[in-house]
Specification:
transferase, globular, pyruvate, 51% helix, 12 strands, 4-stranded antiparallel beta sheet, 8-stranded mixed beta sheet, Glucose Oxidase, domain 1, 605 residues, kinase activity
């Protein structure tokens, strides 16, 4: 018989060697006796979508950004009727989240405010989204323009002749604070459109469930899909590069060289080869500024971008060249998806009472309109903005290492952002006065101990959730993105008691049997064989090239509007998302049946 609840967060002990892990994170992110009475009665789910791994202290800013932004937009700005924000806690280095429901008595008044406030955005969506792109790109360029090179022995003469009046050290302090505040500001904009976008989709979803009893989740989502969005552009660029290689007659050279650097050197010896290299180099910015995280992009500084790991896009180009030579169609089946979308929409529309057709049409039109942003914002924020932020943070770490303040550039990420500010101050003070600083001596033993704790925490297997299961989940993002519903949570408890099946959200229709390939990082993508079933924490756009090789996807996290579910529908692949523990349960080589119609994965062997 399945347990009726998950472990209490106050009963979970740290793994051996991780004692004192709490010192790595900010106090407000921790469970504490002072709020035990409240926290122990709440349901907390692990946010493996953004943080499938142990979180570095510096990376805590990522979840802090969305903690505030999501809550403010839901609670204070748009007044989403049934839901306030999402609480966060860190336990043994993993992030857990708990939705906050709006008081029942406040919902009618909030609904009136939401209709006015969100309605303004819905009516002016295209113009607002156009402005949104401009202001986000402005901040991306701002962060990329910051300079964290090692402080100079002597300021250039231009500091004097230009009457600048402040030092490179001052600019370090100023620009680090600016980078942090810019990241927070941009994340406010991240949720400016996202929550009300999900709310519009959820409203259409609920209308269909009432109008068409028994309708499947995928049928609703397929009425919205098939739209052109920029998020698929990076993969489309790789396909274009492969086609261009064949047109220029340099495909043989690309296939003959295992790495991009060697191939570029060889290609540069011929005119047609140089043309392809120019195309490749021009494509890198911005289309290779794609974070290669194993889940939701941008949540972890470690993984870098395609541009940091050129083997990822280069291997995809090679694969596309091979497939072109085999006569395969490498483009996404967009026309088929659109045709299926229109067929399904027409059939359901014909079933409606005449009085309901107008509401159906308007809700569907709005859902399709907001869907573009729901996917595209990932490119602007999770990829381009976080790539710029992590890149500049690493530049700062390298500078501190070159100045002998840090033993290793990576040490920066074992400090909280406020501690990095302290280290910068000490470094600048020492540089300014010519006297020794205290930073390395002070922080070195702390960083060394945190490295030990971090390694110990990595060995801990986190439960998918903590506390009592929820009576109801009403926060739109929780339902649509994470796939956290009363049914999915109940499935986690049942799976724990009944091995042999995994239950999740039916993300994309179809039934497939095949061998499993467990993938936890982008550098494993090359191991995936044709026809295998991808099992992963979650997918990101960085993984797009593999969707033409796999037979289905199973993910630990995600809902009906997660990237994994959406992209599988676009590629016509079955998907079960939000299983909670597929990565820890399944192993490469096992055979499973993936039922994307019911959300069940059955282990066959």
């Amino acid at each position: 018989m399945a347990d009726s609840s998950f472990p209490s967060p106050f009963d979970v002990q740290p793994p051996p060697g991780a004692e004192g892990w709490e010192s790595m994170y900010n106090w407000y992110h921790l469970f504490g006796e002072d709020r035990r009475e409240a926290d122990e009665t709440k349901f907390w789910f692990q946010d493996a979508l953004h943080h499938p791994y142990v979180m570095h202290p510096y990376d805590e800013i990522q979840c802090e950004c969305w903690w505030q932004a999501l809550g403010a937009m839901n609670t204070r700005i748009f007044a989403v009727p049934p839901a306030l924000g999402l609480e966060q806690r860190i336990l043994n280095g993993r992030l857990y989240v708990s939705p906050v429901a709006a008081p029942e008595a406040d919902i009618p008044a909030r609904a009136e405010e939401f209709a006015e406030r969100a309605g303004h955005y819905y009516e002016n969506w295209e113009a607002i989204y156009g402005e949104w792109k401009e202001k986000v790109l402005d901040r991306v360029n701002l962060v990329r323009s910051l300079n964290f090179q090692p402080l100079p022995e002597r300021e250039p003469i231009e500091t004097v002749t230009g009457h600048i009046g402040h030092s490179a050290g001052f600019r370090w302090e100023r620009d680090f604070a600016l980078m942090i505040s810019t990241m927070y500001e941009t994340y406010q904009w991240h949720f400016e459109l996202l929550n009300i976008g999900y709310a519009a989709y959820l409203t259409f979803f609920q209308f269909c469930q009432q109008a068409f009893p028994g309708i499947g989740d995928q049928s609703v989502s397929r009425m919205v899909g098939g739209l052109h969005v920029e998020l698929y552009r990076p993969d489309d660029e790789l396909k274009r590069l492969a086609k261009n290689a064949e047109q220029l007659g340099v495909g043989d050279i690309i296939l003959a060289h295992a790495d991009a650097t060697t191939a570029v050197e060889k290609l540069a010896t011929s005119e047609d080869g140089r043309k392809w290299v120019e195309d490749w180099e021009a494509t890198r910015d911005p289309w290779f500024q794609i974070n290669s995280d194993p889940g939701h992009p941008g949540g972890d500084h470690r993984f870098g971008t395609w541009d940091d790991h050129l083997g990822i896009p280069y291997a995809a180009v090679q694969d596309y060249v091979r497939r072109l030579r085999n006569g395969e169609v490498i483009d996404r089946p967009t026309e088929q998806v659109l045709a299926e979308r229109d067929r399904i929409t027409g059939e359901y529309r014909d079933l409606l009472n005449p009085d309901d057709v107008s509401a159906f049409d308007s809700l569907l039109a709005l859902a399709r309109k907001v869907f573009v942003y729901i996917e595209e914002h990932v490119l602007y924020i999770e990829h381009w903005m976080w790539a710029a932020f992590w890149g500049k943070s690493k530049e700062l770490g390298r500078a501190l290492h070159k100045m002998d303040v840090l033993a290793d550039p990576e040490d920066l990420f074992f400090l909280r952002r406020s501690e990095v500010g302290e280290l910068i101050f000490d470094t600048v003070a020492a540089w300014s006065t010519g006297a020794p600083g205290r930073g390395r001596a002070y922080w070195a033993p702390i960083i060394a101990r945190r490295r030990e704790i971090f390694t110990a925490l990595e060995a801990w297997e986190p439960p998918p959730a903590l506390g009592p299961p929820p009576q109801a989940v009403t926060e739109p993002l929780t339902v649509m993105l994470w796939g956290i519903t009363t049914d999915s949570v109940a499935g986690w408890l049942e799976d724990a008691a009944e091995p042999g099946t995994l239950r999740g959200v039916a993300g994309s229709p179809g039934v497939v049997e095949g061998p499993v390939r467990v993938v936890q990082s982008a550098d494993q993508l090359g191991e995936i064989q044709q026809g295998e079933i991808l099992v992963c924490p979650a997918t990101s756009p960085a993984w797009a090239p593999v969707f033409s090789r796999i037979a289905a996807t199973v993910s630990d996290v995600g809902g009906i509007m997660s990237h994994t579910a959406i992209v599988c529908r676009e590629y016509g692949l079955p998907a079960v998302v939000g299983t909670g523990r597929a990565v820890s349960t399944l192993r490469t080589g096992q055979r499973v049946r993936v039922d994307g119609n019911t959300g069940v994965v059955t282990i066959l062997a």
